[in-house]
Amino acid sequence: MAHYVDGFVIPIAKKNLTAYKRMATLACKVWKDHGALDYVECVGEDMKAKFGVPFPKGIKAKPGETILFAWITYKSRAHRDKVNAKVMKDPRLAKSMEAENMPFDCNRMLYGGFDVLVSM
Fold first, then answer.
1. S-S: 103 plus which of 19, 67, 70, 78, CB 3.0-4.6 Å?
2. How far apart are CA 28 and CA 113, in angstroms?
3. What is the CATH topology of the domain spanning 4-115?
4. pLDDT at 1 over 70
């Protein structure tokens, strides 16, 4: 079955990881409650790739920052749009979605929606 994925790459100060984890744990519950198939948030561990462009270099991470790599899976883009519309209205996320409450700079987040090309 084809799926659709929202992908994110976020540079974040290491000192903000605890706050981010609290926010992401709540976000995971909300997205799943509204129908997301899967919700995954990962923190960088091996960021010194010897090939390609390492995430920190590509996103211009600052000293003291690490990288978050995340994705949310849906049945289709239409399903993603329905789920996200419900999520954006969910009062559980209202406070954490305010810019001043974000533990990272939203303007530096990379984001995109993707059709799944290969999956096993």
1. 19
2. 17
3. Alpha-Beta Plaits (3.30.70)
4. no
